Structure formats: C-alpha cells, structure tokens
Amino acid sequence: MKADHMTNVAVVVLDTLRKDAFDRHFDWLPGLRFENAYATANWTVPSHASLFTGQYASEVGVHAKNMTLDCGDPTLAEQLRAAGYTTRAFSANTNVTGYFDFDRGFEDFRAPKQVQHLNDDTVFDFREFSRDPGTSRPIHYLELLYAITTGDSATIPSLAALARKAIGKKVTGKHNGVEYGGLVEARRELADIEFGEQEFLFCNFMETHEPYRVPPEYRSVDEPGMTESVGGLNFGTANTEQTKQAYEDCARYLSDAYRKLFDQLRTDFEYVITLSDHGELLGEYDAWGHEHGVYPSLTHVPLTISGGGLDGDCTETVSLLDVHATVLDIANVESDSRGRTLLEEVDGRELLTEYHGLTSWSEEKLAENGYDDQIERYDRSLRGYASSSNFYGYETLDGFTTTGSEQIDDPKRQLRRLVADLDIRDVEADNEIPAAIEDQLEHLGYA
Q1: Closest CA relative to residue 439, chosen from 99, 75, 200
Q2: Which regions span the lipid bilayer (predicted)?
Q3: Strands, E assignment, 307-390
Q4: What 3-state DSSP class applies to 281?
Q5: Do 191 and 262 belong to one domain?
Q6: Exposed end of the chain (fewer CB within 10 Å): N or C?
Q7: Domain that residue 156 falls in
Q8: Which residue ranges of the chain lie beneath pLDDT 50?
Q9: What is the pLDDT of residues 118-142, one digit of tens each?
Q10: Alpha-helix runs per DSSP H in 347-395
C-alpha cells in the first residue's frame, strides 16, 4: 500500500540488462516482478526520455536524431521538485547527464569523476563549441585551450576536463570513466548523503554495457573486445560464445554489486524500482549491441517494484511509461502520462516500442566501413506492438514478425492504430558526434 506521507522513492536503471539474464541472476531481489514489461525504445536516450516524461520518445522528440532532453513537457524530477521533493541522481551513462539536459529538475546530479564536468555549469561549455569542430583533433584541442583560457568559464576545472578528454582514456583505461560500470563509485557517493523524508533518487549503472568488463574474480573468459555492428552488418568478427559468456559474467557481477547498494537504499527508501532501459543483442538476428531495431531481446526488459508490501509476479503487459506514472502516484502528484500506476491492479494494455533510425555515430560507422549505400536502408523508423495477450509483433527491415504464446487478429493494423494516435514532435536532426564526449562514446563501443 502507498504511504499517506511524502514517500521516498528510488528508480534504478540497470542499463542494457537483458530480461533472461535478470531472471538467472536476480532471484534475490524482493518485490513485485513484471514478467512482460517493455521498454519504449531500443537504447538509452529514447527510453530515458519516456521514463522522465511519461510520453513516447517520438512525442517528445528525444531519440537518435535529437539526444537532448529539450522538450516542453515537464520532467519527472521537475514535477517532484515542485511538489517539495529533494531530487538527486547518479548516472554513469554519458548519454544521461547534464550535457544532454537530463539533469533537468535534479538539485543534486552526480556522475563519476571522469565525466562530472558534463554536469557542471561553471565548466567550459564543450557542447556548443564542439558540435562540429571542422578541424583535425590536435588543432581542435588547441582551439579549445585558447577558448578556455580567454573565456569566462572556471579555468582550472575546465582545463582539467580538457585533460581528461585528451588523455583520460589512455591514462585510466577505464570503462567510460568508471571502474566497471558505476556501482562502485555510486556506493561511495551515496553513502555520504543524509537522506531526508521527501527524497527522489534516480540512478543509471553500466555494468552490463559494452565493453563487458568485470573484476578478475568474475572473469571466466578473456575480455572479448567491442562488437562492431549496426543491425545485421558486422565489421570484423565476434566470437559468439566468448561474448555471450563475457556478458553473463557482467550480469553475475552486476547482481552481486547491486545487491549491496540495494540493501543500502532500503534503509532510506520505502520504494525501490529496479528496471532496465533496454536489452542487448548477443548474436540474435546476426546482430550485436542495441543500435538498431525493436527486437524482443532489446525491448522486453526486467522491472521490479520493491516496497509497500508488494510481492509476487504480474504477467500483464506493462511499459516503462508506467514507471513514470507509478512514481508520481507514490508521491501523490497529478500529471498527464501515457503510463498507468503499477500500485493498483494492472489490466490489459496495448503498447508501442520505437526505433527512430541511426544515430550520428552509427551513420559514421557505416560510412567508414564502406556501407554508405546501406545508410538509407537502416535509417528509418521501426515500431513494435505489445498486447496483454502475451503477444509482441514488430517491424524489421524484412517485414513484420510476431512472437508470444498467443496470437491476435491483424496486429499490423493494431500497430498502425496506435501510431496514428501519437502526437509526434518534429525535430531537426543533429548528425554530428559531439567532440566533447567522443572519447566516452568510444569507451562504450559507439563511436
């Protein structure tokens, strides 16, 4: 049951965690499990846009063609802060930082030291300067140095950020500026916070994201290296069994590491909502990663609500949109949301999943590997349709495919009906890789 007072709630995103890996390794996690939960999209930015706004990514215009959370809709943190909540965040994901305005509404938004400058307004604005550098990398760094030393930004922190940009990857050898994915750093950061009685906490951890790196005691195979792939186009070779096992090692480590943080969170938060923003392709459909498509391995995600006496399994179809509505329900905040609260009986749903074409780095990857002629083929919208009948139908480049134990009549028509109901926001595509975060994207296997 929901508390009458303002209740502390934490939302924890275990980035890139597949549902099947969650089922194998997270049997210790208490609460109500949603067996048929779907992300709204195939990767981090659009899924978090939905999580933060309660709308589909196409409606708020935040996806592969516009990664900045610049929509007019209020964010979850903004609504909670207006209602009197203290709003905090820790994100190990470069794509979910102040650089892309995902810090909207958060009073305290933290990141690992290596990328914390992306959340600091006093540090030089690498974003605006670096959208399209137009020069070679060495010349670009000299231009940045001049701009920093002659501008109004905080010089020392800005120079430190520039140094981390220029040499950080070579010096640290770490995964996106964190040791293994963010949980180690987050436990240190959160242990120093004295949480009050009106708290909202958001976290994103990257332990199961490429490059699939774990502590030595969890490593059963050599680190496989990046899986270079866009859709079904693979650049180089990927050892299927080695890569699958490396991912499994990551999921096992994530479970143990998160269990420690979860126990820590339960002392301060009545509700802890644990979920994944998307899954991962591990050779299915001859593809790797999560840069293309709405395959079920990408969109079917884990979701568990711990607290409030909740327990058991729910087999009804739900969405990450419902997490947005549930948090607001816990906080007694009214808001428009496409989601429904998960604290009450869940009935039949029809839901969409979306893919909005190639990111700028995927386009560049295709071009660099001689697949310019494939960009148009892969750079188009695809959608999926999930219903309460344990059915999922989804578009691919080769047609419409269905999965699930039950079937429904004319699912393509049902999909078109839901798409027609969308209030899509048109955005201007930004096809440049921001130079300020290119190194971090390389760490994650994107750029």
Answers
A1: 99
A2: none
A3: 312-319, 350-356, 381-387
A4: strand
A5: yes
A6: N
A7: 124-170
A8: 1-4, 130-133, 168-176
A9: 555 566 655 555 444 455 556 766 7
A10: 360-368, 375-378
